[in-house]
Design goal:
about 5% strand; 2 strands; elongated; Arc Repressor Mutant, subunit A
């Protein structure tokens, strides 16, 4: 890898991709705050609602999905529980495990934000896909292969 070099075009493509990602993240942060949530609160709500089938929403699983440390996730869940967005329950098989669930309030807030995000993604998708294709060598419009 040390002898690999990037071309100016690759640097530009990488910069453009990062720019498009940052714009999307900025939109997401602003939308969450506009709904009265912190951006991480929205991420947790979305992670809970979008949990893969058969996967319990434990603190550890949520921490991994949001790329946070376990203790940071505990603190985040504490703040969200205080705002009645989530609730904790002991695990069914291991009572030491904590499973997190959406509250009715959390369920009400999430669709509005998710619809706004879907609309934004549809708007920025062409630029995001073009920049990703430039980085990966794929043509826009084709499914991007795993690398």
């Amino acid at each position: 890898m040390a002898d690999e070099r990037l071309t100016v075009a690759e640097y530009r493509a990488l910069a453009e991709f990062r720019c498009q990602l940052r714009r999307l993240l900025r939109f997401s942060e602003d939308a969450a705050r506009g709904a009265g949530l912190e951006p991480q609160h929205h991420q947790v709500l979305l992670a809970l609602r979008g949990m893969p089938d058969g996967t319990a929403a434990t603190i550890g699983v949520l921490a991994d999905r949001l790329q946070l440390r376990h203790h940071t996730m505990v603190e985040l869940i504490d703040r969200m529980a205080a705002r009645n967005l989530v609730r904790r329950r002991p695990g069914t098989t291991d009572r030491r495990q904590v499973v997190v669930r959406l509250t009715p309030r959390g369920e009400r807030v999430l669709p509005r934000l998710s619809l706004a995000h879907r609309a934004e993604l549809r708007a920025v998708a062409p630029a995001l896909l073009r920049s990703l294709a430039a980085l990966t060598g794929d043509r826009p419009g084709r499914a991007v292969r795993g690398r």
